[in-house]
Structures are given as C-alpha cells and as structure tokens.
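To illustrate the input format used throughout this study, we show a single complete record. The first block contains the structure-token representation of the backbone; no residue identities are included at this stage. The design step must infer an amino acid for every position from geometry alone.
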C-alpha cells in the first residue's frame, strides 16, 4: 500500500453532505461529479473513460515511436503501425482526394440492374462491415461449442435502434429529421443526384426494416435466437431471398449449417426486397458506403458525419482530436500488434499474480454461495457446481499474439489500408470454419478497459488495462480491491449464471440443466429485479428497461454479493484495520462505488436507455446496494433511509 493513500479510498471525491444511507453513489462520488466536466469530445465521462484516456496516451507514444523509427523494414510491425498512423494524420493528402476513395464503390452500385445483383452486393457490403439488412459472422455454435458456424442477424439501420424509427415524441421526431438531413447532405457531398428524394426513400426503407426487427430484449433470448438451418433448406425456410447470391457476395460457403437469429425478420425481407424499387436499394447502399467512409474522407465529410452521428445522437460538442482518431484506427486494424508493446511497458507481472489469487477466492466464494442457496434444489446445485468448476480465466493478455503478416499496410493510403484491414479480419474469421475452436483467442485487446464472460467458452477475461486504480491497485488494502476488481470478477462469473448465461452448461453448450421448479424460482427472483430497475427514471419520460438490463443487473448484484463473501473468507476471521476512519466492510463497498463514478450527456443517456444492456452508473451503485445485506450492516441502514428496502422486497439470486 502507498503511504499517501493506504486505504485506496479517494476521499477528495466524496460529498459528505450526502448520507451514504440515502445516496451512496453521490456520497462516494459527489465532489467528482460536481467538479469534473465531460470533455467536449466525449458523450460521457467515467472511471472507464479516465483509464481509456490514459491507455490512449500510452498507445500514442508507442505508435509515434514506430512512426519515427529509422529501421522500419517493409512488413515489420514498425512499418505497419507507423504507415497506418501517418496515413490517417496526412489531412492534406486526404482532403485532396475528396470522395475519390469511394468512387469505384459507388460506380459498382450504380451499375447494378437486378434484385439478385442487389442482394449479392448487399452481401459484399456486409463483409466490409458496411450496413446491410442482414449481418453474417462466424461464431461458436451455441449447442456444439467446439465447432464454428455462420450466424445471420438482423441489421441494416443507420440509427442506433429500431425504436428511433418507431417511437413517437418530439425527441425522436427531431432525430429522424436530423437523420434525413444528414443523409441528403452526405449524398450531396458525394455528388449523388436527386439527394433529397433519395434521402426520403432511404429513410422509408430503413423504417420498413425497423418495423420487422426484433426488440433488443427479444434478441437477448439465447434460445429464441438459436435457429439452425441447413444451407440447402434456407431457400425453402425463407423463400424469396437469393441466398446463394448473398453468400457469393459475402464470400460465405454455401454449404453446411447456419443459424438464423431472428427468423421472423428474415421472413419479412423478401417482401421488402420485392416492393422496394432497385433505384431505392442503390440509393440505400450508396448512402451507407458514404456514411461508413465519411470519417476517413476529406474534412467536409468528417464534419458532416460528426454533426449528426456525434453531436445530435450523443450530444458530443467537438470531434475527437485527429491523433486520437488515428490511434483508434491503428487499434482497430492492428490491436494486438500494439497491444503486445503496451503489455511490455504498462502491465506489471505482480498484478497478474494477485489477480489469480483474487479470482480463485471469488470462485471459492461462489462455490460456497451456491451450496447456501435456500431456493435451489440439490440436483440443480450439483449442475451449477459442475459449471463453476469448468470456468476458465484469462488475465492481462493472450499467450498467442495475432499474426498480421497477411495484412498489407501502405504509406499514404488511408482508405486502402482500412479496407484491407477489414478484409483481413473478415477472412481471418472465415478461416475458422471447419477448424477446431481456438480457445486461446481473445475478443478484447489488452489495452481495453473492460472485461467479459464468453458463454460458449465458459471463460472470464480481464484485459491488462482494467487492472489499475480505481479497479485494481496492487499497493492498496484488500478491502478496496475486493470491492472493486473483486466485484468486477464476481460480475463476470455471475454472467455464467444470469438470465441468459444460466442456459449454458459447463461445456459451453446451450442446454437446460435446471429442474423446472428451480428455473421457476430463479425467474420469480429475476422478475423482482426487473421491477426494481423499471422504476428508475434518470431522464424525463425515459426509464431504465429492466428486461434489457437484467443480465447486467444480475451480474452487478451477484458480483458484489460474492465479492463480499470472498472478502470475508480472505479475512479468515481476523478484524480488518480501520483506515481513513472507515471499517474494512465500508471500504469494500466504497471500492465498488468508486469504479462506477461517471456522468452522461442527456443525448447519450437517452441513447443508452434504449440500446445499452447496462444500467446507468448511478443505479449500478444505488440499485445494487438496496439489495445487499452486508451494505445494510456496514452503514447501519434503517427504515426511513432512502436506500432502505424492507427485507421481503430485497432480491437475492446468487
């Protein structure tokens, strides 16, 4: 522990005028909330973004060293990183090109003459990560997790969610009007004819797609979205969509099995395809090519794209500085290449060692917790313990770094570099088909400030960049670390047992291992959590969606509960020291609250309430604490306190 801050508690962030029993989020973070403005290039600011900013600065140094290196042999890491970064930073060259980088794409679309050709080209666009009505990607088969399979999912919208097209009210009408103007302006910048009429037709087509789409809540259902179909039967199951043409455009194998995630949506596509004129489809594709490319074209495109997609949709006041966007570009194309250097400089081996101890203690506490569940029968408990014992943990970074030798990066060719990086990634994923599942693969780079649970791999993953204060401090007292990173570890473990993760067995396969009675009791408790979060309304006429956020809310509640148990086990009957006038148990809960300090612009919060499976940060603290008995004991909550819930109304799941 450090002499300056032995407890790990950041007292300067506290607002002691707010009682912890009434609003723990503001008690711990209130002064930070009052004194910390959201940067003009951010839609929110939080502990996560503070760490991401620092990681970005660290990456900039690594990247700029590669850029200025004198021994940059062709094909070397330094050559690829340096030339990619410089190609983004060369605004003069980019401006001189105007819309030229997408001229061939737009000409190819203009030449299309049949609906089958339209569908083939839609397949091609989605393989380039350009919006199309169907997205196709390679993933593990949820019922045969040792195999890869192609999955089809609904897509095709330029706005963040179907609700933006369908919801009434001035807020959504204003956004739709702004989107219509943005479509027209971007088409005009690319010198597309009849931009006003084309924009109206594009918006109408996207609204049709939105009307057919599933809600985000329904699309969370792992059983409803598992619909396996043999390739040869697709034409019969979903008549009227030229599947072979789509596969040809997307370079997909027209064989084997696929999974269709939202079948009723796919069933609706043939009618939309037939009723929509070819010219409208061409306008639609041209716009999405332009929209996708705009941040990488001349400043006129960049500024118009940002004005709507940054400012209107998220409330961001200014675009991110160009160097930050350049760093993001390098990360997206060469993430593990720069990640390897990031780890060598910024990740301490002792952090991994201490994390391994924390994870082991969290797993031990979860094991004890399962045995103590009063609502679960012995048969389901045994299956839950079997799944828990099969968990895999990954900490810091991958043991096998990605090979980028097949990716060509050329000096002064920003658009070509980006396109080749996308094609490289698309091919890398296609190459998985027919191969054994790579259990060493990471789905986040080590410089990512986040963590995740992968149900098909039954694994929890903690990248290096999150393993620093306020989440993790190798110098700090146990209490703060168990409440902070311990809670995050518990959160990720709990995703294996949330409303969707519980549907997977220990081998990563989607399989029901619950007795009917225990499943019913679980669902009843989960419904109580849905009701609690539905009641939280951070914006006028907009509330948290308790069903959309259920998995993350279960993760938060179960995570902090099991972390608290792990902390008690770690104390081994000893009394924790009082530091900064706070008991060990109080510091534990403060650790969690410090992790989730943060604030949003209203437009961003509005978007997240519709699209984000995580609750706003305030409720990730206060909403959880209402249900945790240890919090009541640590801060002596009593009836009348704002965070007090009668015992019968508190939710306990894990």
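Output of the design step:
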């Amino acid at each position: 522990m450090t002499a300056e801050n032995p407890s790990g508690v950041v007292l300067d962030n506290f607002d002691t005028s707010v009682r912890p029993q009434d609003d723990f989020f503001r008690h711990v973070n209130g002064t930070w909330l009052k004194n910390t403005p959201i940067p003009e290039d951010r839609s929110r600011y939080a502990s996560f973004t503070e760490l991401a900013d620092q990681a970005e600065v660290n990456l900039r140094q690594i990247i700029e060293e590669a850029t200025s290196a004198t021994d940059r042999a062709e094909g070397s890491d330094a050559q690829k990183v340096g030339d990619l970064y410089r190609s983004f930073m060369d605004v003069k060259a980019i401006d001189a090109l105007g819309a030229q980088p997408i001229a061939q794409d737009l000409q190819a679309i203009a030449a299309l003459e049949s609906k089958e050709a339209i569908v083939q080209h839609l397949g091609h666009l989605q393989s380039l990560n350009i919006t199309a009505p169907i997205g196709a990607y390679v993933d593990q088969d949820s019922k045969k997790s040792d195999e890869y399979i192609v999955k089809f999912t609904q897509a095709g919208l330029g706005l963040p969610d179907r609700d933006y097209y369908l919801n009434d009210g001035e807020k959504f009408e204003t956004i739709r009007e702004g989107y219509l103007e943005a479509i027209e302006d971007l088409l005009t910048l690319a010198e597309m004819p009849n931009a006003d009429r084309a924009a109206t037709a594009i918006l109408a087509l996207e609204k049709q797609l939105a009307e057919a789409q599933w809600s985000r809540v329904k699309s969370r259902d792992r059983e409803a979205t598992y619909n396996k179909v043999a390739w040869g039967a697709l034409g019969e199951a979903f008549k009227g969509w030229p599947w072979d043409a789509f596969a040809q455009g997307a370079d997909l194998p027209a064989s084997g099995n696929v999974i269709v995630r939202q079948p009723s949506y796919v069933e609706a596509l043939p009618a939309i395809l037939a009723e929509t004129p070819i010219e409208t489809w061409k306008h639609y594709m041209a716009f999405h090519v332009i929209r996708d490319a705009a941040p990488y074209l001349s400043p006129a495109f960049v500024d118009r794209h940002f004005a709507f997609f940054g400012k209107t949709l998220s409330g961001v006041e200014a675009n991110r500085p160009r160097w930050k966007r350049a760093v993001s570009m390098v990360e997206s194309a060469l993430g593990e290449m720069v990640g390897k250097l990031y780890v060598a400089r910024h990740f301490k081996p002792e952090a991994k060692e201490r994390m391994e101890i924390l994870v082991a203690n969290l797993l031990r506490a979860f094991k004890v917790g399962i045995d103590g569940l009063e609502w679960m029968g012995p048969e389901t408990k045994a299956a839950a313990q079997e799944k828990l014992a099969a968990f895999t943990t990954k900490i810091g970074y991958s043991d096998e770094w990605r090979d980028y030798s097949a990716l060509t990066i050329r000096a002064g060719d920003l658009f070509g570099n980006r396109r080749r990086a996308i094609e490289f990634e698309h091919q890398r994923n296609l190459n998985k088909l027919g191969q054994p599942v790579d259990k060493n693969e990471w789905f986040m780079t080590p410089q990512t400030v986040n963590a995740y649970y992968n149900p098909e791999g039954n694994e929890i993953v903690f990248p290096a960049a999150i393993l620093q204060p306020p989440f993790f401090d190798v110098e700090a007292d146990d209490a703060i670390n168990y409440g902070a990173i311990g809670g995050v570890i518990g959160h990720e473990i709990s995703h294996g047992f949330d409303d969707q993760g519980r549907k997977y067995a220990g081998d990563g396969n989607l399989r029901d291992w619950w007795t009917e009675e225990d499943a019913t009791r679980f669902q009843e408790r989960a419904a109580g959590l849905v009701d609690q979060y539905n009641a939280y309304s951070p914006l006028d006429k907009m509330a948290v969606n308790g069903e959309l956020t259920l998995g993350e809310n279960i993760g938060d509640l179960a995570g902090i509960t099991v972390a608290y148990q792990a902390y008690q086990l770690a104390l081994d009957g000893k009394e924790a020291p009082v530091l900064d006038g706070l008991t060990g148990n109080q510091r534990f809960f403060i650790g969690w609250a410090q992790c989730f300090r943060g604030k949003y612009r209203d437009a961003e919060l509005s978007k997240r309430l519709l699209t984000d499976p995580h609750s706003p940060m305030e409720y990730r603290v206060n909403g959880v604490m209402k249900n945790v008995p240890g919090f009541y004991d640590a801060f002596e909550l009593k009836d009348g306190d704002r965070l007090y819930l009668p015992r019968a109304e508190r939710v306990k799941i894990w």
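Structural context for interpreting the output: The chain is about 55% helix and 5% strand. Residues 11-36+349-390+470-649 form a domain with the Collagenase (Catalytic Domain) fold (CATH 3.40.390.10).
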